[in-house]
Specification:
This protein is α+β, with helices and mostly antiparallel strands and 91 residues long. It contains 3 helices and 5 strands.
């Protein structure tokens, strides 16, 4: 599944366009590497998402679109959450 679609379906971002914008500025990494919106993610990949005041690192548990749309499923496991200074760009 594409990373932008995964971020939206897993509710890490609200809209796919926001996911694509984060990816284009380099605020999303897959397995420690900068990616493109069209990059594919797989089960057990590590994804880092930088927000204004924090950076989340998660491990992907589900990559199937049908399973991600179910409300009770957990699409990822939180590995770490790091607080950062909003003035400094962690990406």
């Amino acid at each position: 599944m594409r990373i932008d679609k995964f971020l939206k379906l897993s509710r890490l971002v609200k809209r796919r366009s926001v996911a694509q914008e984060k990816i284009s500025i380099g605020a999303v990494r897959i397995n420690g590497r900068v990616c493109k919106s069209s990059s594919h993610v797989h089960k057990s990949d590590s994804v880092e998402v930088a927000y204004t005041a924090r950076v989340l690192q998660v491990e992907i548990l589900l990559e199937d679109e049908k399973e991600l749309k179910k409300r009770g499923s957990e699409p990822y496991r939180l590995i770490s959450e790091t607080r950062v200074d909003p003035d400094e760009r962690p990406w």
